[in-house]
């Protein structure tokens, strides 16, 4: 068994539950907040803020939420919240008592919400199963997305981040990877926000400049990884496993990456996440990454996320070369 799995769960009751209950099926992945982050004051602040916000919003309907995980999983509160905030009419029963009906209700609610938020499935940080399973991380991501969309002026506690552990069952046993994940934006970093805004505008309003930026980044990458006999033709597909990104960082920063520390030919999403997380850690330690990046976005081939990370390297080393 991976020692990180044991280290991540310092509370015996939590560990025992994972070892004795068949809650992760073979081939399934589950991302959880590490217990060391559970008592994070900023996380507690966000939970209290969201709870009070929901209760204020639904006060006239006499709905009182005490626990985000326990009170939202069946879809009832979400149903009322969306009808109240967005005047959305949902074709589902108000009260679903059985798990089958709760799953169906959540499916309808989350489908409508995804269309409202204009999010593709790969961009969602929650699912029917995770909400139904009372997963705190998924529930928080969902509520933050709802709040930001329907009440954009709401002053959510900024810079809330947690340590997570992703667990996957394989034929060889439990496999884990660790990461730091942001739940709310880091509003303390104005420079990072302006950089994000620039890329948002590039993607939405300037397709001609977008192509030119891609070309410049590709040339920059090829100039350096070409020394290793590599050729990059597609940013989206060739950076999703983290390998070329790690090799590029090594070339630019002037150090050798031990092959035992990453997967040169990753065979699963977990191995790709491991590589990407390692690359992001190296960038952060080197002072090159001063904004939050979701490693899953890169693994899923999110072009905007990949280009933002590459631009961090490009902006520093291109300037030095000139």
Automatic annotation (TrEMBL):
GO terms for biological process: actin cytoskeleton organization; cell projection assembly; establishment or maintenance of cell polarity regulating cell shape; substrate adhesion-dependent cell spreading. SUPFAM superfamilies: Calponin-homology domain, CH-domain. Residues 44-151, 211-318 form the Calponin-homology (CH) domain. Interacts with ILK; the interaction promotes the establishment of cell polarity required for leukocyte migration. Interacts with ARHGEF6; the guanine nucleotide exchange factor activity of ARHGEF6 is essential for the PARVG-induced enhancement of cell spreading. Belongs to the parvin family. This is Gamma-parvin. It is found in: Cell membrane; Cytoplasm, Cytoskeleton.
């Amino acid at each position: 068994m991976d020692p990180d799995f044991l280290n991540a769960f310092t509370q015996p009751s939590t560990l025992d539950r994972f070892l004795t209950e068949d809650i992760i099926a073979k081939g399934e992945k589950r991302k959880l907040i590490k217990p060391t982050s559970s008592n994070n004051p900023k996380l507690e602040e966000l939970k209290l803020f969201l709870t009070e916000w929901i209760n204020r919003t639904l006060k006239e309907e006499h709905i009182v939420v005490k626990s985000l995980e326990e009170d939202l999983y069946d879809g009832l509160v979400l149903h009322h919240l969306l009808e109240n905030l967005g005047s959305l009419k949902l074709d589902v029963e108000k009260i679903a008592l059985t798990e089958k009906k709760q799953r169906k209700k959540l499916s309808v609610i989350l489908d409508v919400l995804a269309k409202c938020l204009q999010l593709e499935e790969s961009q969602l940080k929650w699912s029917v199963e995770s909400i139904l399973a009372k997963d705190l991380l998924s529930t928080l991501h969902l509520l933050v997305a709802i709040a930001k969309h329907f009440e954009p002026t709401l002053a959510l506690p900024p810079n809330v981040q947690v340590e997570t552990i992703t667990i996957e069952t394989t034929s060889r046993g439990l496999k884990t990877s660790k990461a730091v994940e942001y739940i709310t934006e880091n509003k303390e970093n104005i420079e990072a926000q302006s950089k994000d805004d620039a890329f948002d505008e590039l993607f939405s309003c300037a397709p001609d400049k977008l192509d030119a930026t891609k070309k410049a980044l590709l040339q920059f990458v090829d100039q350096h990884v070409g020394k290793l006999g590599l050729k990059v033709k597609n940013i989206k597909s060739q950076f999703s496993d983290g390998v070329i990104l790690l090799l590029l960082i090594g070339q630019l920063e002037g150090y050798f990456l031990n092959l035992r520390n990453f997967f040169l030919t990753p065979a699963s999403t977990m191995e790709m996440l491991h590589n990407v997380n390692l690359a992001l850690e190296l960038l952060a330690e080197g002072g090159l990454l001063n904004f939050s990046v979701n490693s899953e976005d890169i693994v899923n081939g999110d072009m905007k996320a990949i280009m933002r990370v590459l631009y961090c390297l490009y902006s520093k080393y291109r300037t030095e070369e000139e």
